[in-house]
Write a structure and sequence with these properties.
4 strands, about 30% strand, about 60 residues, 2 helices, alpha+beta
């Protein structure tokens, strides 16, 4: 199982494969480095004071 974290906060959904998690990120943000490489962490531009959103795909969940 895989999970998606945004700024260290785990989303309440698990995905059976990394590819399924990448597809969900793709639906939310469009094409990212997850689509073109093996990265598990990317930073996405944000209007927040932090400047970027940290997006991570990790093994985890139930």
């Amino acid at each position: 199982m895989y999970i998606i974290k945004m700024n260290e906060i785990e989303l309440p959904v698990t995905y059976p494969t990394r590819e399924a998690a990448v597809e969900e990120v793709h639906r939310m943000f469009g094409e990212t480095e997850f689509d073109t490489g093996g990265a598990n962490i990317i930073f996405w531009p944000s209007v927040s004071a932090r400047g970027n959103t940290k997006i991570e795909i990790a093994k985890g969940g139930a």
